[in-house]
TrEMBL record:
Residues 9-61, 62-112 form the Myb-like domain. Residues 9-65, 66-116 form the HTH myb-type domain. It holds the Pfam family Myb_DNA-binding. InterPro entries: Homeodomain-like_sf, Myb_dom, Plant_SW-associated_TFs, SANT/Myb. Residues 133-157 are annotated as: Disordered. Its main location: nucleus. Residues 142-151 have a biased composition (Polar residues). SUPFAM superfamilies: Homeodomain-like (SSF46689). GO terms for molecular function: transcription cis-regulatory region binding. It comes from Ilex paraguariensis. Keywords: DNA-binding, Nucleus, Repeat, Transcription, Transcription regulation. This is Uncharacterized protein. GO terms for cellular component: nucleus.
DNA sequence: AACTGCCCCAACCGCATTGGG
DNA sequence: GCCCAATGCGGTTGGGGCAGT
């Protein structure tokens, strides 16, 4: 049973999320963390099903999301991983911090697939198209009842993990030899594909203890730097992006523009009913983490509220150390959609 | 300006898996 | 072992934006 029937049954909202809904969900999760999704909508005051909330958080609201276009390194990384793993988007996404399975899947379907075809490479097998066609013709003549030995987009599942890993290394070596720089190859090859630390996922307050200190594999230096940061040195909102691996990429201003409209809508509504809205919101999520669109202190209270909210709540909920909190919180808040609002402000940031 | 077709991507759908009772 | 609810995952869809005519 999918989401649809439960949404219909409970007359829940579907379709695109409004800024207000985002606000509620973001405030709720940053304050209370990710727990039972089915109870989130009720507690956060949303007319959505838990599944929808989960998806929205994972694909859009999560503060550790990297936004904008994929870098060449990421693209090569995805190609190598897809060759080894097939359409296992979640596993691929686990190796690309800040990227979601949905995002990678969309990127693959809309861009990489076409690119490969253009290059004469079969996107399913990663082999030259002529070879694939010849093989499928041979399969057809040998055994007409079998359309394909292997599901499309999937590697041979009969292989053991060790065999798959070996295949992966062989494949990626070939892939890197032809496509990657030495640096990225070294970086990639040094990471075993089944390294569980890759599966790190941002879940406020729910980090398994063994991963709480695990460095993010993608950008060690950035991570280390953040470990040493204090809260009062949160990244400034204007010089925000993770430059480590994304230096060459062009960032889409999608989220910024989206949040700009978010802000302007909020400004509009605040001129009419800001007190009502923010008051209502604080009733929902408590005092610490409200979105207040009070022109004087909105961003400051947003930041402090959220951070304080997480800090106090999560310290109580889980044995996170101060440094570990920094690990979770100082990372990439700067490029979060709700953080990029700063661009709409007067240009003065007080952090 | 109006229309059309294409592309991208957020969100949905439905199946699989997991976990608790 | 069975049942059921919750969650995870991959495939698919549909709406909005944009370029071309």
């Amino acid at each position: 049973m999918g989401c649809h029937s439960c949404c219909v049954k409970q007359k829940l909202r579907r379709g695109l999320w409004s800024p207000e809904e985002d606000e509620k969900l973001f405030n709720y999760i940053t304050r209370f963390g990710v727990g039972c999704w089915s109870s989130v909508p009720k507690l956060a005051g949303l007319q959505r099903c838990g599944k929808s909330c989960r998806l929205r958080w994972i694909n859009y609201l999560r503060p550790d999301l990297k936004r904008g276009m994929f870098s060449q390194q990421e693209e090569d990384h995805i190609l190598g991983l897809h060759e080894a793993l097939g359409n296992r988007w979640a596993q691929i996404a686990a190796q690309l911090p800040g990227r979601t399975d949905n995002e990678i899947k969309n990127f693959w379907n809309s861009c990489l697939k076409k690119k490969l075809i253009k290059q004469g490479i079969d996107p399913n097998t990663h082999k030259p198209l002529i070879e694939t066609e010849a093989r499928s013709e041979k399969d057809w003549t040998d055994n007409p009842s079998m359309e394909s030995q292997q599901p499309k987009g999937l590697p041979d599942l009969s292989k053991t993990s060790a065999e798959m890993e070996q295949t992966f290394h062989l494949n990626t070596t070939i892939c890197f030899d032809s496509r990657l720089t030495e640096a990225s190859r070294d970086h990639f090859m040094s990471k075993p594909i089944y390294d569980p630390s890759y599966l790190f996922e941002f879940q406020v307050g729910n980090l398994p203890t063994q991963y709480q200190k695990s460095p993010r594999p993608y950008d060690q230096s950035h991570f280390d730097a953040n470990l040493e940061d204090e809260f009062d040195s949160m990244p400034t909102l204007t010089s925000s992006f993770d430059h480590g691996n994304m230096a060459d990429s062009n960032f889409s201003d999608y989220s910024t523009s989206r949040m700009s409209s978010f802000l302007s809508e909020a400004k509009e509504s605040s001129s009419n009913s800001s007190h009502v809205n923010s008051h209502a919101m604080s009733n929902i999520v408590g005092n610490g983490s409200t979105f207040s669109w009070d022109v004087d202190n909105k961003l400051e209270s947003l930041f402090q509220g959220q951070l304080n909210g997480i800090k106090s709540e999560e310290v109580m909920q889980s044995p996170l150390q101060e440094g570990q909190l920094h690990t979770c919180l100082s990372e990439d808040f700067s490029n979060h959609p709700l953080m990029s609002l700063s661009e709409d402000f007067s240009g003065e940031h007080h952090f």
